[in-house]
Amino acid sequence: MNVARLSGYAPAVHGLLRIMSGLLFLAHGTQKFLSFPGGERAGSGLAFDSPGAYAGLIELVTGALIALGLFTRPAAFLASGTMAAAYFIGHLPQGFWPINNGGDAAILYCFVFLYFVFAGPGAFSVDASRTRGHLPHA
Question: What is the pTM of this model?
Answer without folding.
Answer: 0.88
